[in-house]
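Write out this protein's structure.
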Amino acid sequence: MTTEAAVSDARTPAQIEADIVRRRDQLAETLDEIGVRVHPQTIVGDAKARMVSRVDQTAGRAYVAVNRTVAGVKGRFVSDDGAPRLERVVPVALVVVGLVGLLAVSARRPRRRRG
């Protein structure tokens, strides 16, 4: 006879009944936990939390990228002491004004009808 079999034979009916009650309670807990996990509200809540986390990560990355870009542009147009670099600002400003002017003129020009 093995040691395990000897131990099981030495148990009293009260010990066996207590073991059955304990295992039944564990099974009930497990079934309750499974019920909570597969409940539609839980599934939707988990999916929502994952999506919010991904959006937060994406927004954080976008924020960092924008800050880097702004810092880079600022570095090109502003000197270390905070003064604007006119040799770079003036040409860009002229190009922007020229593009806005072209857009304004082309928007005012009547369009020809084909036909």
